[in-house]
Amino acid sequence: MSLLASLRQGAKGFAWFMRGVMGEDAYDKYKAHHEALREAHDESVHDPDAAACDRQVMMTEREFWRDQTDRQDINPQGRCC
Amino acid sequence: MGTKPRTPHDAPKRGEELDRDPLLLPVALDQTTHDAEEAHWTPLKIGIWGGISLLGGLSWVMLAVVRGETVNAIWFVFAAVCTYLIGYRFYSNYIQKHLLHPDDRRATPAEYKADGKDYAATDRRVLFGHHFAAIAGAGPLVGPVLAAQMGYLPGTIWIIVGVVFAGAVQDYMVLFFSMRRGGRSLGQMARDELGKVGGTAALFATLAIMVIIVAILALVVVNALADSPWGVFSVSMTIPIALFMGVYLRFFRPGQVTEISIIGFILLLAAIIGGGMIADTEWGSTFFAVEPLPLAIGIIVYGFVAAILPVWLLLAPRDYLSTFMKIGTIGMLALAIIIVRPEISAPATSEFVNGGGPVVSGTLFPFLFVTIACGALSGFHALIASGTTPKLIEKERQTRFIGYGGMLMESFVAIMALVAALSIDRGIYFAMNSSPALTGGTVEGAVTFVNSLGLTGVNLTPEMLTETAKNVGEETIVSRTGGAPTLSVGLANIMQQVAGGSGMMAFWYHFAIMFEALFILTAVDAGTRVARFMLQDSLGNFFPKFKNTSWRLGAWVTTGIMVAAWGAVLVMGVTDPLGGINTLFPLFGIANQLLAAIALAVCLAIVAKRGLFKYIWVVALPLTFAAVVTIFASFLKIFSTVPAVGYFAQNRAFSKALDEGLTSFGTAKTVEAMEAVVRNTMVQGILSILFVVLAIVVMVTAVQATVRSYKSRDFGTNEDRAVPSQIFAPSGFVATPEEKKLATRWDAQIAQAKLDKAGKTTRR
């Protein structure tokens, strides 16, 4: 039982790691960032950062992934040799 | 309005602006807690570090002192891992403590510039994976293979000691300094710290170095795939596979990265297996057997098209595939080496340490140190460490784990490549890596040549070469220079002992070729794009229109210029009568090390500006070494009178032969070939001069900046203003007990906040 549980936890950890390394969690991070800003905005309407964010609409998942590769078009990153 | 204007008296003292409300949870452990944890040596800790030191020491003795007939590969692994652990624990800690002074109370760019996209705090372990995948490529796999000519010991020492004192130091410092500057690039930092002259020289050097690096990586692929129907088929299949993945991610299931990577990986395996079948057919073996020159032209055309296509269609999906393959294959190789533990029969130092070797010409010093660039010290990493990674760092102290630790990992890859190359028969090694000019490209020629070298313990027979070629599914393995095929034979040899037996060798060989080609094609494509933007930026100073990077025509013209530049060097390498890669590879190593010297020079100026003259040797040591090695190597390449070493000596020898009306000279059998040598050596010589002059300008300006700081004692800074952090995260791979305690409190607070929020919404 405990072996099974730790195996499951290990597999979960590995899946989490691979997801992160492959960059699959990019949208989750983006969404969390926006939600945090929105919350800060709700709490203090005077925070200029949060107000600025409110004007900026959060992208949908599909829009986000498009935007991500399109941003790489104008901001390329080298790969090493 | 209510606050009174600040007078100089109540301006915050240095660091005071970071003071945090004591009622809130701290965002950092204070320095005394860190120091106390470090100074606390429990018997268990002493036992562990004692064990590591003993095992490491024993391994070095086994490698360097005990000279049996053979040496087991496991000693390489232990020597490397133990040295890395000690270097990480003690030396990188020393750098952290005395030179960099990370302050976790300061927010990182990922926090204060957070946009959820480019700037986003990323878990340190995930970012380690990201950073490693971005820095590791074909370089650490190829250089050590070529350096195996000198015997196993020199390469091993340089890879392991070099990384601890040079490579990892550079990566760590550049990452840290870039992070403190909001993720600024190396070029921008050079301009800020060294002024206009140094900055401009650094920019041009970077551009020129990128061209040469892309060209030589492409040359490695050409050499691996030429006249190999199987390889050509399976590698070209990566293009439709990547296109399919791109379309899938764009239109069908955006964001399903792991899913499509697994699909892509399965298709890739199918392409490798299919390649074997197709190479067996009559039409396949003729249609896909492409000669070097047409193959090079194919790669040039590919490079241009790939660099102007949108990223989502080709680059991004292939990047996913490449990351997936990289992590998987490297893990697999490490495991296989530990399971198989091959015996290495190569000598510790070979007959060629004093020069005269067919793979790398010249003496051990300085040429070993430019042959193995990536894996010990790689300037290219400075571009990555001042690119994406600093924008994703969560806490300042994590730079040590990611920057220093990431480079140790790459060094380990280089050690494994060295072991794989050394595990194959020495005779076969020299037959594969001597240029066709020496072996004549035939089995008989190779056997005669290798046996004439008079190497101890080497007795090559034609059967050995034909047998190996048959096993790996190639027509011939003679003169498959460039390192990649040798590594693939070594890897196939190790892997078949774990899975599949000799029947699977051909599969593993082509798997390895595919794995390297994938990295290189990505590097070619991405390198062309980066170079194009750098060129547009520079041209924009004279023709403002070029500054607009979305101007189509401008993009095409600048891409064309960059592709033409590396394409010309590639064609030169492919058609070179002297054997191409063996003459060009030193240029690659010198270029990469000069970039490292530039990066270290920038670090030197920054450390001086911080007023840390007592500890400046930490930067000065690797900088001096890199400068001496590269300037000396360049000097030999420019001024040596030995034709095999000096570009201009070679040039003079062939010019003289032409003047005397000879129609064949040395390995050049026709007048055209002789003229090609004259032309190529001139270009190579001029490139050497260009690189070394630019790098010297940068280093001189850096030393001037350092002296200026020393004299004026004016320790200004180009760092971004300190912003207080609001988050906490541990710094190393495993959290220390104190970090764990604090992290638990943070977790509890976050959970409580969630509960509160949920409560609030239900009450509403």
UniProtKB/TrEMBL annotation, chain A:
User: What would be one Pfam family of this protein?
Assistant: Sel_put
Domain of life where this protein originates: Bacteria
Protein name according to UniProt: YbdD/YjiX family protein
Automatic annotation (TrEMBL), chain B:
Q: How does it sit in the membrane?
A: Multi-pass membrane protein
Q: Which UniProt keywords apply?
A: Cell membrane, Membrane, Transmembrane, Transmembrane helix, Transport
Segments traversing the membrane: 46-66, 72-91, 132-151, 157-179, 200-224, 230-248, 260-279, 295-315, 327-344, 364-389, 401-424, 507-524, 553-572, 584-608, 615-636, 682-703
Q: Does the keyword tRNA-binding apply?
A: no
Query: Taking every annotated instance into account, which residue ranges of this chain make up the domain CstA N-terminal?
Result: 72-633
* Annotated InterPro entries: CstA, CstA_N
Q: Where in the cell is it found?
A: Cell membrane
**Swiss-Prot/TrEMBL GO biological process terms:** cellular response to starvation
Question: What domain of life?
Answer: Bacteria
Cellular component per GO, a single term = plasma membrane
Which Pfam families does its entry note? CstA
Matches recorded under PANTHER family: INNER MEMBRANE PEPTIDE TRANSPORTER, PYRUVATE_PROTON SYMPORTER BTST
Which family does the record assign?
A: Belongs to the peptide transporter carbon starvation (CstA) (TC 2.A.114) family.
Q: What is this protein called?
A: Carbon starvation protein A
The species this protein was found in: Cryobacterium cheniae
